[in-house]
Amino acid sequence: MTTREEELKKRKTYLQIAGTACSNCHKTCKEAGVTSLLRCARCRMFYYCSKECQKADFQFHKAFCSAIEEVNNTEEAWYSCKGTESEWNKRKIYQMQLLSYALDRELTNYERHAWLNQPKCQICFKCAKDLKKSQSLIPCPNCQVVFCCCSDHWEKHRSKHNDLCAIYQIMLDCEKIRYLPDQPLWAPEEYDEDKSYPPLPKDWNEYFKWRKASHILQHDSYCRVVTNTLSLPLTILAALKRFYDRNQLHSINDMVIHLAGANQYELLALMAFEEIMHVLPDIKSLQLVMIGLEMFSKNHGFPLKCCPRCTEENRKRVCSMYPMTYHDFANSLDYNKPHLVVGFNTGLYEDDTDLWKPTIECLLDKNSPCSFTSYSKKEAIEDVKILKEWGAKILTGAKENKWRSNMPLVEPQEVDKFYYNNYYITLFQGNANKEKN
Question: What domains, with CATH codes, occur in the chain?
Answer without folding.
Answer: 4-178 (no CATH), 204-436 (3.40.50)
